[in-house]
User: Fold this.
Amino acid sequence: MIRALVLIAGCALMPVRVAAQGDDSRYYPPDGCVGVVTTQNRDCLVNNIYTCEADQPGSSWRLMFDRDGPVFLSKIDFETQWLESYDLFPTRQDALRQPADDPASLSELLATGIDTYDFIIAGTQGVTRVVGFDRLTGDDVVIDGEPLLGTEFSARHESTMGRDLQVQGREFVSVKHRRFFPGVTTISQGDDTEEHDRTPIEFIYPGEPGFFTTTPLYECEASLARFVPITKGSDQ
Assistant:
């Protein structure tokens, strides 16, 4: 059963439109937006990535679904700065405070092999400073025909709400999409540690079966089907 909801994004109400297709369902992006690619990921997640005419060139959105429906929406720019995000159940909204002290820059990462960042996100649950780096590892892979650059990252999250985190792990970069895709991430808060593997398994393009589906396919057993939002590092 797909959750019914309305997303507040870009100061406009943005309905999630889902149409049934047999045992599957398809997500339709808002008017003025075009689907780019769908990824089926481990951990019972599927991501639909799209662009919108009203946005700055190079910006893109990602809407994530788990087995119960949409759970997370985020927007990045051409340099992969995380501009805004929305956790959907329960609702939480965050936005980048600009200009950042040290903006995330995919161009810097690709040119030099490492990119540092130091930025602040503010939202419904306080203000968080994020300080960290991305580094190319040389462990490049091809997943479902998609060439990806291997990266590692480490980021410290300093929260005004007393929820400081250390987030680190490995991700993948697509030069074609100018976007990070998730891998294995470890989140530490005090003595508590969680590890998630959300590596993509399939890349699905317009016209291919499963494009903009809302149904995740992999690792959806009850014991694995859970969603814990990860903030960067991870797939933005």
About this structure: The two ends are 26 Å apart (CA to CA). The chain has one domain: 6-204. Confidence is low (pLDDT under 50) at residues 1-15, 223-234.
